[in-house]
């Protein structure tokens, strides 16, 4: 039996193979296959392919004077919507029975944004909040790229139509597209530095990747008869493999490194060389055929496993991959391949679905399924938000992206009759402020607070996000401490050390050591409070499920990264490091059923009391406070 397929006239085997490679990269990345940590670049490959295909479809229609926006969008609708709508309906139905009401409403907001192709905007907005739904447990997270593509589908034809009516020279037309693409690349690089979340999710900073595909179409054929065509194609495939192998999430994305998979895909497309043997293997072409459905289903399968506390292992990963392939094949065969003559039937089906999803994203529709005590615990973060704001001193001494308010006069007010203790850090420092004030002897100690969400409290910047509120930390090091070094008696530094995305442990450790050295030179006592644990889904959800199903909570819900970071810092810092991470068992609820955490990594007042007790009982602090 042949393992390659018989050539089909006009069919681009290389593009179908690129789809297969892209979806495998994304799947391996999401399933945390370590040696392919750069698999996320598969999305960028998809973007270039979409840009190429849309440019070909639109320009060929314009050249034949038969371009119809209605027909164009209708075809895109029939191609994209059925499988996506099926996914949304199935997941919405299943989550109705298993998700607590607040989790379900959050899930339905994502479902609504996905089916209306606005999920990239939703995730950009929610990523600015530290108490936003967890990305890794958002079952529709992966639809952000579909939303970007759909928005591109809507705007791109208008640009090409405008250019076609104003520029007659093909050469000038191509040069203009290239100039426009370069401009968008520059915009993306600037935005990535200052507004990385926006740059990652939004069309203006992603469209250049699709424009690269457009350039590939306009330059198509120039290398087909060239003896270097096969070499260029192989170079592209090799570059993609190296991207999957060598790239990782410590790199700013999109950024300069994003050019690598984009250029690699561009080279393969313009080479248009089918003599590369492996691209015609049946397995590769089959993967390319089901790539869209496989992309849709692989992530929900992983998230559902996470939600039920299933610890990932090699065997389980293989099982989930097999399930993903089966669901992808079923979706491709029985949904994606359905021949729909007119998009109006899809629009008619979409309207009631969107209405129902919108209603379920705001109304309590599934309360009756759960016990009262389970609901009380699971909904704690929603019903007790005022307690959280008070605990963190939010809007006064804790600045967030959504509210950058910070009162220097109140938060950094020196008391010359007491020992001044400075709490310095991010939200993980802010969460301890109320408990520290409660437990410290107010007749002897004055607590100062300088906390800014998402900012590592090191003397030098080690991350680029949220530069606006970094100024609070900079002010402490550059102005406040130099002016009051004789009046500051102790500095407590803490943060979500493992939560700094895109930053290596060595860089964080170096920043901490530099900060310790800074305070030591000024004869200020300093302690570093360690990494607390975090969970794969919100703690209240786990505790609520415990009440509901009487299941035993275990460490399957814990993230490993926090323990790895804690061990790393403990090993490399001296006695000034205080370990607080829970080493033994899943923390119980308080006597009045207050959960240990608000979400997956921020402790409640009850949890903060437990941590502060550990801090005050540590030899590094006992001597000072006593």
From TrEMBL:
Q: Please list the GO terms describing molecular function.
A: acyltransferase activity, transferring groups other than amino-acyl groups
Gene Ontology biological process terms from the UniProt entry: lipopolysaccharide biosynthetic process
Q: Which residues cross the membrane?
A: 12-31, 37-59, 80-100, 150-167, 172-192, 231-247, 253-271, 292-310, 316-333, 345-362
Q: Which InterPro entries match?
A: Acyl_transf_3_dom (IPR002656), Acyltransferase_3 (IPR050879), SGNH (IPR043968)
Is Transmembrane one of the keywords?
yes
Entry keyword set: Acyltransferase, Membrane, Transferase, Transmembrane, Transmembrane helix
**SGNH domain location, by residue?**
409-615
A single GO cellular-component term from the record reads: membrane
| Acyltransferase domain sequence ranges | 13-315
Superkingdom per UniProt: Bacteria
**The keyword Transmembrane belongs to this UniProt entry's keyword annotation:** yes
Q: Name one Pfam family in it.
A: Acyl_transf_3
The name this protein goes by in its record? Acyltransferase
């Amino acid at each position: 039996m042949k393992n390659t397929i018989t050539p089909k006239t006009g069919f681009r085997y290389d593009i179908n193979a690129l789809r297969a490679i892209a979806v495998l990269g994304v799947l391996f990345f999401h399933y945390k296959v370590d040696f392919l940590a750069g698999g996320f670049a598969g999305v960028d490959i998809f973007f270039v392919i979409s840009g190429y295909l849309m440019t070909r479809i639109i320009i060929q229609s314009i050249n034949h004077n038969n371009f119809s926006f209605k027909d164009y969008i209708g075809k895109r609708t029939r191609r994209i919507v059925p499988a996506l709508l099926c996914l949304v309906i199935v997941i919405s139905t299943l989550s109705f029975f298993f998700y607590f009401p607040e989790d379900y409403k959050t899930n339905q907001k994502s479902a609504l944004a996905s089916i209306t192709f606005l999920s990239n905007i939703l995730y950009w907005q929610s990523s600015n909040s530290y108490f936003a739904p967890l990305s890794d447990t958002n079952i529709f997270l992966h639809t952000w790229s579909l939303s970007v593509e759909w928005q591109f589908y809507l705007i791109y034809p208008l640009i090409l139509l405008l250019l076609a009516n104003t520029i007659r020279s093909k050469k000038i037309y191509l040069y203009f597209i290239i100039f426009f693409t370069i401009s968008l690349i520059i915009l993306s690089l600037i935005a990535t530095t200052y507004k990385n979340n926006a740059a990652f999710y939004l069309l203006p900073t992603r469209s250049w990747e699709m424009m690269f595909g457009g350039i590939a179409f306009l330059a198509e054929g120039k290398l087909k008869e060239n003896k270097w065509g096969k070499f260029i194609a192989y170079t592209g495939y090799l570059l993609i493999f190296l991207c999957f192998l060598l790239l990782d999430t410590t790199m700013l994305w999109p950024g300069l490194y994003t050019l690598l998979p984009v250029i690699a895909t561009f080279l393969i497309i313009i080479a248009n060389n089918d003599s590369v043997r492996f691209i015609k293997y049946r397995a590769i072409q089959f993967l390319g055929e089901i790539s869209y459905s496989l992309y849709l289903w692989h992530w929900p399968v992983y998230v559902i496993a996470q939600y039920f506390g299933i610890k990932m292992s090699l065997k389980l990963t293989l099982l989930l991959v097999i399930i993903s392939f089966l669901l992808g094949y079923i979706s491709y065969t029985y949904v994606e391949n359905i021949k729909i003559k007119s998009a109006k039937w899809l629009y008619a089906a979409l309207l009631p679905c969107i209405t129902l999803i919108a209603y379920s994203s705001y109304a309590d529709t599934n309360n009756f399924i759960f016990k009262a005590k389970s609901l009380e615990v699971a909904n704690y973060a929603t019903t007790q938000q005022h307690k959280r704001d008070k605990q963190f001193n939010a809007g006064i001494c804790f600045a967030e992206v959504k509210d950058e308010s910070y009162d220097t006069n109140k938060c950094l007010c020196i008391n010359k009759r007491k020992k001044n203790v400075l709490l310095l850090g991010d939200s993980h420092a802010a969460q301890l402020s109320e408990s520290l004030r409660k437990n410290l002897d107010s007749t002897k100690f004055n607590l100062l607070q300088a906390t800014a969400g998402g900012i590592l409290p090191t003397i030098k910047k080690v991350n680029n996000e949220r530069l606006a509120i970094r100024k609070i930390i900079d002010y402490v090091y550059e102005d406040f401490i130099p002016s009051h070094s004789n009046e500051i008696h102790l500095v407590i530094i803490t943060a979500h050390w493992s939560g700094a995305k895109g930053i290596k442990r060595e860089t964080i450790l170096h920043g901490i050591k530099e900060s310790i050295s800074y305070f030591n030179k000024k004869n200020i006592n300093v302690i570093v409070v360690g990494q607390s644990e975090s969970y794969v889904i919100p703690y209240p959800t786990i505790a609520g499920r415990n009440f509901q199903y009487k299941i035993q909570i275990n460490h399957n819900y814990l993230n490993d990264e926090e323990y790895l970071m804690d061990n790393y810092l403990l090993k490399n810092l001296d006695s000034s490091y205080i370990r607080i991470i829970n080493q033994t068992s899943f923390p119980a609820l308080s006597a009045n059923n207050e959960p240990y955490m608000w979400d997956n990594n921020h402790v409640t007042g009850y949890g903060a009391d437990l941590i502060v007790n550990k801090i005050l009982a540590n030899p590094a602090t006992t001597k000072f406070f006593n």
